[in-house]
Design brief:
CATH superfamily of the largest domain: PurM-like C-terminal domain
Organism: Paenimyroides tangerinum
Shape: globular
Structural class: alpha+beta
Bound molecules: adenosine-5'-diphosphate, magnesium ion
Largest sheet: 7 strands, mixed
Number of domains: 2
Strand content: 15-25%
CATH architecture of the largest domain: Alpha-Beta Complex
Binding site for Mg(2+) 2: 58, 87
Binding site for Mg(2+) 5: 241
Pathway: Cofactor biosynthesis; thiamine diphosphate biosynthesis; thiamine diphosphate from thiamine phosphate: step 1/1
GO molecular function, one term: ATP binding
Length: 352
């Protein structure tokens, strides 16, 4: 039995590695018949029969990718799964399994890891993926989480970044910039809290933005939606670092250029309001803010009629020959070269 004087803080070194893994993963069930062997051996065993397998990994480091000052561990666990699922969705594949590796210091009690794994469990349930293994090790200070996601697709379903062709339409799902502004709100509240811990923030005007930052969702629905609409994207990528840098990845891989229209960028009303409040240009935020986890893809112009009425899909531009470059056409109809500024750049020079 564990000796536990403080019910909220059970030191993890009381359990030992095997008991810890067992404790954290005992509620994980197996949902896919492709999972032949899950947690508990030297390696998991999978069988995808005639399907192709897609694999993607992400690494999240405390202090770099997340701040436990405002990201609750449950949300962090959920989001760590989501960012990986999003990469599988961006290949137009179905996520099926994940592995979860963590490095923790003894600063984290068992209860903290339980929270983290509760988030991982909820996301695995929502996205219908099996947790099939991982690794657990110690870290000298911060928390590190690495997740590998595995997915399946028929060969002809897979969509790469390099298939966009001249005249294709550029489409984005959902809306842009909200996750970035959610982070700005949280950062501001954290500063207020540091000055006066009794100050209870009123975050009602920012609920959508904060949710987009703390609990983003991957667009697992889009594969099915496009199948129903009988549209296959010619190229696709997920928006983790911001629209502009993803547009550059896609156009560079496809050896094309593109024109994006400012007036077509999908913005949530809450984003527009908060940008005014922070005195930031909403277009800049929509283009450069990161972590929206929406999908950016191209379709043949002839498929336009099939998608035009769908509220999830927004045509924001079109592909041009490579030598014409990558531009944004402003509301005033001026053509400006788009710059590939990612997520980290914007925080350094946001009023540039
Ligand atoms: P090894 O010594 O071969 O690295 P481990 O003792 O680390 O094996 O892991 C034992 C089993 O538990 C393996 O199936 C492994 O995939 C799984 N596992 C280890 N750490 C985690 C974790 N953090 N989350 C989920 N599964 C884990
Ligand atoms: Mg191990």
């Amino acid at each position: 039995m564990l000796e536990n004087k403080d019910p909220q803080r059970t030191p993890i070194d009381q359990l030992g590695e095997f008991a810890l893994i067992d404790h954290l993963t005992k509620h994980f069930d197996i949902k896919h018949k492709s999972t032949i062997k899950s947690i508990g051996d030297d390696a998991a065993v999978l069988d995808f029969e005639s399907k192709k397998v897609v694999v993607s990994t992400d690494l999240l480091i405390e202090g770099v990718h997340f701040d436990l000052g405002y990201a609750p561990l449950k949300h962090l666990g959920y989001k760590a799964v989501v960012v990986n699922i999003s990469d599988i969705c961006a290949m137009n594949a179905n996520p099926t399994q994940i592995t979860v590796s963590i490095a923790v210091s003894n600063r984290f009690p068992l209860e903290a890891l339980e929270e983290l794994y509760e988030g991982i469990r909820l996301a695995s349930k929502f996205y219908n993926v099996d947790v099939i293994g991982g690794d657990t090790t110690s870290s000298t200070s911060g928390l590190i989480i690495s997740i590998t996601a595995i997915g399946e697709a028929n060969e002809e379903e897979i969509v790469y970044r390099d298939g966009a062709k001249d005249t294709d339409l550029l489409v984005v799902t959902g809306d842009l910039g909200a996750a970035y502004m959610g982070l700005q709100v949280l950062e501001r509240e954290k500063q207020v809290f540091l000055v006066n811990p009794n100050n209870q923030p009123d975050l009602d005007d920012y609920t959508y933005l904060i949710e987009r930052q703390l609990k983003p969702e991957a667009r697992k629905d889009i594969k099915e939606l496009l199948e129903k609409l009988e549209v296959k994207p010619t190229a696709m990528i997920d928006i983790s670092d911001g629209l502009s840098s993803e547009i550059f990845h896609l156009t560079k891989s496809s050896k094309v250029g593109c024109n994006v229209y400012e007036e077509k960028l999908p913005l949530d009303p809450q984003l527009i309001n908060v940008c005014e409040e922070f005195n930031l240009d909403s277009t800049t935020i929509a283009i450069n803010g990161g972590e929206d986890y929406e999908l950016l893809f191209t379709i043949k112009m002839s498929d336009y009629d099939k998608i035009k009425a769908n509220p999830h899909l927004n045509v924001i531009g079109h592909i041009v020959p490579e030598n014409e470059g990558v531009h944004i056409i402003t509301r005033e109809n001026t053509k400006i070269p788009l710059k590939a500024r990612g997520w980290s750049a914007i925080s350094k020079d946001e009023d540039e």
